[in-house]
Every structure is written in structure tokens, then in C-alpha cells.
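If you are new to this repository, start here. Below is one unmodified record pulled from the training split, so you can see the exact layout before writing a loader.
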Amino acid sequence: MTNELSPAELTQLLESLESRLAYQEHWLDTLDQAVAQQERRLEKLEQLSALMRERLREQHQALQANDFQGTSRPEDEVPPHY
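And here is the target side for that same chain:
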């Protein structure tokens, strides 16, 4: 007993496989675009994070320089009612 498919069945099977392949290719393209977009966003966020670290470092150094010089800041002064 052989399990041979008719030409119509083979054509239907081939069309089904081609359809599945096209669907998978579409989703791979969609996923590739999403990954590329996330990579660009991550790069921007990393740049922003580096900029924020640098500014925080600068502010910290400025505060230390002010403390070293002995200058008082308004937020460090005790209100008169204390």
C-alpha cells in the first residue's frame, strides 16, 4: 500500500506551505523592524542617561566647591522660628 498524493493534493499542500512561509516571512520582517526601533530607542536612552550622569556629577562638584568655600546656601539656613 503506497501513500501517494494526487496532483491536486500536492498542489494544495504546496500552496499551503507557501502561504505559511509568506506569513512567517512577514512576521520576521515585522519583528526585525521592532527590534531595530527598540535598539534606536535604547541608544537614545543611554545617551540621555550619560548626559544626566554628567550633569549630576557637575552639580555635585559645584556643591562641594561651595561647601569648601564656606558659602552658605539659603536651603541650609535654619528659619528664624527654630
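Two things worth knowing about this chain: The chain has a mean pLDDT of 89. Residues 20-67 form one domain.
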